[in-house]
């Protein structure tokens, strides 16, 4: 059985680091409120003129370097983003050009904060079905471009960044001891559109800004994240005790803690980066995976569960043997 095995991971964060205290100058907020309600201490913001595909390209090059693979040898690029440089072409084709690839195919996936698990599921399907041998999967965002800087309940929560993985086809036994993507679980429900959305777009003739019902999102997040992670594990006959690391979407430390508790996984088995990155939407999981590998938490052979939820609502989980 063909498996999509992780061969490299990398990330990039814009140079500018913005600590919570910076918001105290322009908003009725405090470092203490932001830290205690979200766990966020700082985030990175892209420089003027720095775009999502710029961040994505740097993360992609880091992942390619770790894998020892040349950009020209990638078959497909799947880039998860809600903040692409242009309406079209896709940010993925911009990355394709930047890494010197002309023989593969590239496209964006838009599932907001769940974008990375959707991209991983699609990349896995391309490999398992034989449509690609080597896939570059990226999550990259510049959410600083869609913030309402007068809305203290949203603008303090988000950040910019990118993370990337290289998946390569390998023969496995079909058992859960195999390395690679072992299971995926995707969900969406458009009834919840108004809980988290951007109030503009191409068809409505303005870029728009992010709007969110924070409390409602919180409630849905804990319930749906635990449910999707359980579902992904159950599909392959595994449970919480088999998990080495949960690598969750990094939106809010209280959501991460409540979900881990619901799953029955201790916080000593959860990779947490929200304090340093804020919510980077589709970039948050690959960023956390890259940081987790770099700091020695995530090691080859570990069973990893990633889970995410975002606008749509769209949510899902991916189980990977690293
Ligand atoms: C946004 C969030 C941090 C707010 O935390 P909360 O504990 O629910 O706080 P509330 O929304 O009840 O707000 C409490 C008070 O703090 C205020 N407040 C909101 N943002 C504030 C800020 N940055 N600084 C100070 N006060 C703030 C509110 O105005 C409210 O004041 P009020 O009681 O006078 O109306 C929380 O709801 C959350 O994280 N939700 C999920 C968001 C998320 O992760 N979204 C992305 C999913 S992909």
Automatic annotation (TrEMBL):
It comes from the Bacteria. HAMAP family: FabH (MF_01815). Keywords: Acyltransferase, Cytoplasm, Fatty acid biosynthesis, Fatty acid metabolism, Lipid biosynthesis, Lipid metabolism, Multifunctional enzyme, Transferase. Residues 250-254 are annotated as: ACP-binding. Pathway: Lipid metabolism; fatty acid biosynthesis. Catalyzes the condensation reaction of fatty acid synthesis by the addition to an acyl acceptor of two carbons from malonyl-ACP. Catalyzes the first condensation reaction which initiates fatty acid synthesis and may therefore play a role in governing the total rate of fatty acid production. Possesses both acetoacetyl-ACP synthase and acetyl transacylase activities. Its substrate specificity determines the biosynthesis of branched-chain and/or straight-chain of fatty acids. The keyword Transferase applies. GO terms for molecular function: 3-oxoacyl-[acyl-carrier-protein] synthase activity; beta-ketoacyl-acyl-carrier-protein synthase III activity. Residues 107-190 form the Beta-ketoacyl-[acyl-carrier-protein] synthase III N-terminal domain. Residues 233-322 form the Beta-ketoacyl-[acyl-carrier-protein] synthase III C-terminal domain. Homodimer. The active site is at 113, 249, 279. It catalyses: malonyl-[ACP] + acetyl-CoA + H(+) = 3-oxobutanoyl-[ACP] + CO2 + CoA. This is Beta-ketoacyl-[acyl-carrier-protein] synthase III. GO terms for cellular component: cytoplasm. GO terms for biological process: fatty acid biosynthetic process. Gene3D superfamilies: 3.40.47.10. Belongs to the thiolase-like superfamily. FabH family. Its EC number is 2.3.1.180. It is found in: Cytoplasm. The last Arg residue of the ACP-binding site is essential for the weak association between ACP/AcpP and FabH.
């Amino acid at each position: 059985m063909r498996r999509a095995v992780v061969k490299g991971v990398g990330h990039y964060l814009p140079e500018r680091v913005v600590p919570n205290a910076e918001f105290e100058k322009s908003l009725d907020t405090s470092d203490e409120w932001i830290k205690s309600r979200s766990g966020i201490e700082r985030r990175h913001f892209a420089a003027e003129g720095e775009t999502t595909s710029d961040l994505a390209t740097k993360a992609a090059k880091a992942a390619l370097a770790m894998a020892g693979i040349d950009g020209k040898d990638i078959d497909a690029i799947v880039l998860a983003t809600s903040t692409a440089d242009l309406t079209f072409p896709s940010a993925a084709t911009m990355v394709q050009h930047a890494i010197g690839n002309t023989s593969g195919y590239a496209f964006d996936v838009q599932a907001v904060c769940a974008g990375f698990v959707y991209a991983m599921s699609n990349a896995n399907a391309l490999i398992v079905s034989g449509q690609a041998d080597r896939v570059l999967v990226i999550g990259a965002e510049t959410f600083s471009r869609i913030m309402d800087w007068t809305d203290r309940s949203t603008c303090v929560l988000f950040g910019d960044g990118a993370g990337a993985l290289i998946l390569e086809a390998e023969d496995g036994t079909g058992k859960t001891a195999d390395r690679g993507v072992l299971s995926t679980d995707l969900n969406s429900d458009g009834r919840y559109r108004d809980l988290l959305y951007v109030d503009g777009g191409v068809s409505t003739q303005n870029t728009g800004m992010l709007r969110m019902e924070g409390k409602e999102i919180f409630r849905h997040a804990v319930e749906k994240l635990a449910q999707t992670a359980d579902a992904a594990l159950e599909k392959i006959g595994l449970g919480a005790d088999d998990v080495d690391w949960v690598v969750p979407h990094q939106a809010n430390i209280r959501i991460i803690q409540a979900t881990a508790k619901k799953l029955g996984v201790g916080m000593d088995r959860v990779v947490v980066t929200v304090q340093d990155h804020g919510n980077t939407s589709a970039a948050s999981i690959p960023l956390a995976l890259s940081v987790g590998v770099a700091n020695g938490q995530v090691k080859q052979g570990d069973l990893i569960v990633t889970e995410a939820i975002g606008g749509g609502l769209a949510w899902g989980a991916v189980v990977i043997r690293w």
